[in-house]
Amino acid sequence: MRLRRPALALAALSLVATLPRASRSAPGRVDVDVDGYAGRTTGGWACGPTAHTTYGGGAAQVRYADAHAGTREGGVAAVVGGSVARETNQRIDPSGGCAPDDTRGVCGEVPAPRTMAAVQGRADWSDERWGVGVGVGSAQWWSNHDDARPYWHTWPAFDARIGRVSPGRTSAHVGLGTTVPTMAARPGLYGGAVHTPDDDMGWEAWGSLTRCGPSFDLCARADGAFTFPLSPTLRLRAGLSLDWVDVSRADLRVQALDPAGSVGLGARF
Questions:
Q1: Among 206, 241, 186, 224, which residue's Cα sits nearest to residue 59?
Q2: For residue 252, what pLDDT is reported?
Q3: Cβ distance 80 to 16 under 8 Å?
């Protein structure tokens, strides 16, 4: 059953990727983004330790849109992205979540450092004023603190947009899943705004209730990103975020404000 989840997710992504090619004969456009990122997040398990998780890695995303996507006629697009990051956990509660009568201390162990992967794909339809997209995502994380390996977990992805995406305009979004490939491993409910750049700087602002820590605690997250056009086809993107987590266990309450950052390049063909 556990092996079927990533297989189903990859099959769905393959289907999503074929949609634009079958939908229009007009030439489309391709956007490619590559980012490096690093940060820290805090969380744990109800029956186990609480930990700070530091991570760093790379992410990539490809978006294909037909010639009519975002125009008055309306058209389709497909977005496929993913990330790979090295995660290291540091236990922060003195007892490790162990019961007073535990003599082995196994409950206090945290998973060893591990490289974790995540993917997400979505099929979108949009015209000049609104858009909607559906898809699927899958990522590795630790279901239990004493698991021998992380397992894949799969969720539905959804995004709704109102507002123009033409240069110099601002659009609003709400959805489920992730907004950028650097967050592919940390899905959640999100809302925000995107200002599409023309010759000037573009920006994004997001708020979300998202996955944090090595397992699935929830935290509030704020993201901001800026896009700087370097040429008509190349852009530089830099982002910063903060997680706020308030975790309560039987013998511990942890409140943490965790930072993260990213920098990358994007190109349009």
A1: 186
A2: 75
A3: yes
Contact 81, 120 (CB under 8 A): yes
Please give the tally of structural domains in the chain.
1
Is the confidence at residue 100, as pLDDT, over 70? no
Please name the residue that has the structure tokens 């998780």.
53
Which among 178, 264, 177 is positioned nearest to 226, based on CA atoms? 264
What are the b/e assignments for 236-265, b being 16+ CB within 10 Å? ebebebebebebebeebebebebebebebe
pLDDT exceeds cutoff 60 at 205: yes
Asked if residue 256 lies in contact with residue 245, where contact means CB atoms within 8 angstroms, the answer is yes
Highest-confidence segment of 95-99, 247-251, 261-265: 261-265
Domain enclosing residue 165, as ranges: 4-24+31-268
Which residue matches tokens 């940390």? 186
Q: How many CA atoms lie within 13 A of 146 on its CB side?
A: 12
Could you count the other beta carbons within 10 Å of the beta carbon of residue 187? 25
Q: What is the pLDDT of residues 112-137, one digit of tens each?
A: 999 999 999 999 999 989 999 999 99
What distance in Å separates the CA atoms of residue 6 and residue 79, rounded to the nearest whole number?
A: 18
Query: Tokens in use for 127?
Result: 């015209």
What's 85's domain CATH number?
Answer: 2.40.160
**87's tokens:** 């995660």
Is the model's pLDDT at 11 over the cut of 50? no
